[in-house]
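go over both lines:
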Amino acid sequence: GSFASNFESYTQDQFPLRETFRQAKALFSVKVLGRQDNNQIYESKDGFLAKLEYPMKETSIDYAASRFQAVYDRYLSGNDRVFVALIPDKAAYLEGIPKLSYADFANRLKEKTPFARFIDLSGSLTLDSFYKTDTHWRQEAILPAAQALAKAMGKEIGSGFTATDTGICFKGVYAGQSALPVSGESMYYVTSPTL
């Protein structure tokens, strides 16, 4: 019963010159029609890609907080060393695109997780902390965020790390989703004598 629909999905993905047609459609939408996004992926003037995460969905925050509460109630009840940190999305640092309010999101999360101490990471991250074409942080750029987490937990992280280029030209998840022609970037890993 599902063979025909599965085969149809497979053939759409295997269509000759599929990526060329996707890129042409994306360029037409952005360059000719003047859309700001393609497939809900925005490109900044600096080449950063970010997904539209707007408007804020309070029910999603409430659901996540209820799951945190359930874990706290079952395993950590009475523990005063419980923390919650909100990692701002890359879009929070981009100008000129629709985005949700990080402050409103953080306040809602704090309100719904009174059992945990909130760690604010917004000041320890910048746009350059993220890969241009992906959702993830750059490993060599997250030391300030790691130090902020450690400090809030009463610990300390040194800075004796070495960033090493992997030699990989990295294109992240947003590069494929946007279908826009974007350049790859160097990918680094961080090491130290301890590691």
About this structure: The beta strands are 37-38, 41-43, 49-51, 83-86, 117-120, 162-170, 185-191.
